[in-house]
Amino acid sequence: MKVYQEVKDVPAISGIYALVCPDTKEVRYIGKSKNIKNRFKSHRGTVRTKGHPVTMWVAKIRDEGKRPFIKILKETESKGDKINKLEIMFISYFREKGSKLLNIHGGGAIPAAIGNGRSSECWSVNNMEDPWRVLRNLTFGMKKNSIRVKEIMKSLSEEYRSLSSEKERVDFQLNCFVKVLAVGGNKNIDKAEAWIIEAAKQINKSYPKRVTIRYSDGVEVTP
Questions:
Q1: Cβ contacts of residue 148 below 8 Å, gap of 6+?
Q2: Contact 157, 94 (CB under 8 A)
């Protein structure tokens, strides 16, 4: 499977692609696009964005004077469910191989929250586990073996206790939602996604259009 180093050499086709580390030649990210050439150009010109592992990685290696490579895993039509299923399949395949993927979810039409919701009490939804609780549960086992994880969770706990308003706690929960997507596991991600879909309704009820659910197939919904 050919690895492309320069944007000019990449065909402008739709399908599934992989970003490759220029040093180790390992696959670090799986994506889909209706124009892989343009998407590769976008990746290589990315800016450092907090909360998005792939853009942080690209920015880091760019600071070292390098750029990611790309290889096309499968050419396919960009419309319909097939491309979503292929993305899910390839992400699963490379994760099973032990690749350290930067994808924050398992692919397909998976929601992620965007926006800066503000509303009192909206983090408490239908007795669901909120993202802060999900994050604490999923890192419980990690803390026994990682000083760094202990430090992060201690800092977050102190931050949560210092919050003085409901609005601040809402923002904290939304930040925890992003962290769960980044470190999560399928069950924990499912819990966080179910929460954000319901929480967005309550946020937007008090503050219209403050949160939008953006799906990876490009569909956006403002509950």
A1: none
A2: no
Cβ atoms 28, 21 nearer than 8 A: yes
d(C-alpha 87, C-alpha 177), whole Å = 23
Contact by Cβ (8 Å): 21, 100: no
Cα–Cα distance for residue pair 167/64, rounded to 1 Å = 40
Q: Which domains does the chain have, with CATH numbers?
A: 3-106 (3.40.1440.10), 112-221 (no CATH)
DSSP-based three-state secondary structure for 70: strand
- Helix pair angle (147-162, 131-143), 10° resolution: 150
Distance CA 58, CA 160 (A): 31
CA distance 163 to 159: 7
Q: Give tens-digit pLDDT for 1-36.
A: 789 999 999 999 999 999 999 999 999 999 999 999
pLDDT tens digits for 145-169? 577 777 778 888 888 888 777 677 7
Amino acid identity of residue 57, one-letter, is W
Are 102 and 46 contacting, i.e. CB atoms less than 8 angstroms apart? no
The secondary element (H helix, E strand) that includes residue 83 is helix 82-96
| Alpha-carbon span 204 to 161, nearest angstrom | 26
Give the torsion through C-alpha atoms of 162, 163, 164, 168, to 10 deg: 170
- For 99, the token pair is 């690749």
Span 40-72, pLDDT tens digits: 998 887 654 444 678 778 888 888 899 999 999
Q: The pTM is what? A: 0.52
Q: Which residue has the tokens 């419309």?
A: 79
